[in-house]
Each structure stands twice: as C-alpha cells, then as structure tokens.
UniProtKB/TrEMBL annotation:
Keywords: Isomerase. PANTHER family: GLUTAMATE RACEMASE. This is Glutamate racemase. Signal peptide: none annotated.
Length: 263
C-alpha cells in the first residue's frame, strides 16, 4: 500500500503521522513545493497550477491514493486535481472539521488562513453544517508560515493575535489549516490564558482524512501491524530528504525514524 500526501510544505505532517499510526505498513510519499510555498497568498489559478505540479509528481510514483493535506488547496484546487488524476488515483481533500464542532451545541471558532477565512467554500460549510450554531471565523495571518519555518517566536505572536480575535466564550475550536495542528498545544495555552483557564475541544482533520483515504481504497486502520512502511519525500518533484524543520514537531519526528533529513 502506498499513500501520497501533498502540501506546499510541512503542513502535511499531521495527516502523514496519522496515516503512519493507523497503517504502519503503508509506504508514505510526501510531495511538497518548497519553492512555491506558501500557497495561501497566491491567486486561485496560480495555486491550482502549483498544486497540479505537486500532484502529478506524486502520481508518477503510482500511489494508491493522494491526500490533499492542505485546506487552501482543497478549497481552490480539488476539482482540478480530481479531474487530472481520478479515477486512476483517488484524491481525498481536507475539509475543516466544522460539522463535528457544531454538533456539540457550543460556540465555535474556526481558525484558518486569511485565504480560507470568509471564502465561499468555508461559508458554504458553515451554512450546511453549522447553520444553527454561533460561529466566529478567525483569520490567522502569518501562522502557517511561522509553523513552516519552525519559528517559535513568530508562532507565539501569530497565535496571540488570533487568540485576541477569538470570543472568550468559545467552547470548540476548528483548526482549519493543516499547519495549525502541529502547534495545537501553543494554541490551547494561548486561549486558556485569554479565558482564565477555560477548557476547549479542538477539532483537527488529520485522522479523519487518513481514515477516509483508507476507506477510498478499501482498506481499514490496522495500527498494530509491524512498521514496515517506507518514506519517500519529493521536493519540487525531486526526491530528497525530509526537511529539517519537520523535526521540530512530534509528527515529523515520528515520520523521521529511519528517514534522512535535509540540512
């Protein structure tokens, strides 16, 4: 079994780590675009062109499925990616976990990139799955880039700015960018400080996306299998080592076991 995951950078680590935990026997292929990232500020047409290049590079390795482990790319490019690769390769997008967050009946904050915040796509998800809920969209400028660079000070500043925009009575937080799942602990701390220690339920997409990818190829989670799956990294379509910045995160360290690193 070979599962490919794509993103502009290391935002795919959360979904890749979830897949590694669910299927230790699966070969993982990570396809990134270090020269073109971040994708968020790009026009939809430009972003789609970059995403197609990353997806086609992955497709050359004949994976059983391709996970678009990027919310922004899923918003703008998923139809083009599916048109290019399916039905030969199932393409699984990443959708913000708005539906389960709204089901709790509390107040929901959706942290997302400025490109996704307020987009017709996200507003459509809110209308479909959270019409009766109190929802606040929270733009997080600079956070994904700070996570990508592993810059802890920049992450702290971006998280603090977004926390200041988050209503104090929020009960559920949707992490609407795959990069944000890598710094959930920092987000949790910042929100707790803002609200005097309130508890929040966080909703990411990594595990749900991994499960959906397995479902699409007729497989199921088998986390107790021996870890025999390999790791291949494509940087701009060229095979290379796992970016060193990935080691700053637990998900990256999980994947890095036995894999070479970039310096």
């Amino acid at each position: 079994m070979k599962i490919a995951l794509m993103d502009s950078g290391i935002g795919l680590l959360a979904a890749a780590a979830a897949m590694r935990r669910l299927r230790p026997d699966a070969d993982l292929l990570l396809s990134c675009d270090p020269e073109g990232m971040p994708w968020g500020p790009r026009t939809p047409a430009d972003l789609t062109g970059r995403a197609l290049g990353v997806a086609r590079a992955a497709a050359e390795h004949r994976p059983d499925a391709l996970v678009v482990a990027c919310n922004t790319a899923s918003v703008h490019s998923l139809p083009a990616l599916r048109a290019a690769l399916e039905p030969a390769i199932p393409v699984i997008g990443t959708v913000p976990a708005i539906k389960p967050a709204a089901a709790s009946g509390g107040r929901v904050a959706i942290w997302a990139t400025p490109a996704t915040t307020g987009s017709p796509y996200q507003r459509g998800l809110i209308a479909e799955f959270a019409a009766g809920a109190r929802v606040t969209e929270v733009p997080c400028p600079g956070l994904a880039d700070a996570v990508e660079r592993g810059n802890e000070d920049a992450v702290a500043r971006a998280v603090a700015a977004a926390a200041a925009l988050t209503p104090a009575d929020v009960t559920d937080v949707v992490l609407g960018c795959t990069h944000y799942e890598l710094v959930e602990a920092s987000i949790r701390t910042a929100l707790a400080e803002r609200t005097g220690g309130a508890e929040f339920v966080f909703h990411g997409s990594a595990e749900a996306v991994a499960v959906q990818a397995l479902r699409r190829i007729g497989a199921r989670p088998e986390p107790y299998l021996p870890r025999t799956g390999g790791l291949t990294v494509l940087l701009g379509g060229r095979q290379g080592p796992l970016p060193a910045a990935a080691l700053g995160y637990a998900e990256g360290r999980l994947l890095a076991e036995g894999a070479p690193l970039a310096h």
